[in-house]
């Protein structure tokens, strides 16, 4: 009997950034239906409004909603995506050092018998690692090294 097992533990953490976007179009009839395709074209989608929401999962002050209406909405959206890519790149390259553990976190780390990521026990040969968020520096728990 085959068993399925979850192994991609790195996917347990939410992605740091998500962009949700929508484009609204008008349907414009096409007068000249002749073309070289085997398809008859009746109407064309003409974009007129774009809106997107950038969701940041570690700092909601970075999240934002932006709508735009106009004939140049697709060009506007492409420029917005280029700007968002620069914002995301900044946070991906900036690694915030881990904050100092408080008394309770230190006790939990030294007494941890189970890895908080893979939920498997630590063996005496395992090196315990202080898993933390590289975007915020917040400690998450004791983990196997390299998970
Ligand atoms: Zn583990």
Spans where pLDDT lies below 50 across 5 or more residues: none
Estimated structural class? alpha+beta
| Major sheet: arrangement of strands | 1-2-3
Distance between the termini: 28 Å
Described by strand count, sense and barrel closure, the largest sheet is: 3 strands, antiparallel
Number of helical segments? 2
Give the C-alpha Rg: 24 Å
Q: Helical proportion?
A: 10-25%
Question: What does the overall shape look like?
Answer: elongated
How many DSSP E strands? 5
Identify every distinct bound molecule in the structure, by name, code or SMILES: zinc ion
Number of domains: 2
- Give the overall pLDDT as a whole number: 94
Q: Strand percentage, roughly?
A: 25-35%
H/E element order: EEEHHEE
InterPro entries: His-Me_finger_sf (IPR044925)
Task: Characterise this structure.
The structure is a single chain. With 147 residues, this protein is α+β, with helices and mostly antiparallel strands. It has two domains: 13-29 and 41-93, no CATH class; 103-144, no CATH class. 20% of the residues lie in helices and 30% in strands. The protein has two helices and five strands; from the N terminus they run βββααββ. It has helices at residues 73-93, 103-111; strands at residues 17-29, 43-56, 64-69, 128-132, 139-144. The protein has a three-stranded antiparallel β-sheet with strand order 1-2-3, with helices on one face. Strands 4-5 form a two-stranded antiparallel ribbon. The longest helix is centred in the middle third of the chain and has 21 residues, at 73-93. The mean pLDDT is 94. Zinc ion (ZN) is lined by residues 115, 117-118, 120, 143-144, 147.
């Amino acid at each position: 009997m085959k068993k399925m097992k979850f192994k991609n533990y790195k996917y347990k953490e939410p992605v740091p950034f998500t962009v949700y976007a929508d484009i609204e179009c008008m349907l414009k009839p096409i007068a000249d239906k002749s073309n070289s395709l085997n398809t008859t074209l009746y109407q064309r989608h003409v974009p007129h409004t774009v809106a997107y929401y950038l969701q940041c999962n570690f700092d909601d002050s970075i999240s934002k909603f932006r709508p735009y209406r106009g004939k140049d909405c697709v060009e506007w959206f492409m420029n917005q995506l280029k700007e968002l890519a620069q914002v995301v790149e900044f946070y991906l390259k900036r690694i915030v050092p881990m904050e100092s553990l408080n008394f309770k976190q230190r006790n939990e780390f030294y007494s941890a018998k189970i890895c908080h990521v893979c939920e498997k026990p630590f063996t005496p040969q395992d090196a315990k690692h202080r898993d933390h968020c590289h975007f915020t520096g917040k400690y998450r728990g004791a983990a196997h090294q390299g998970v």
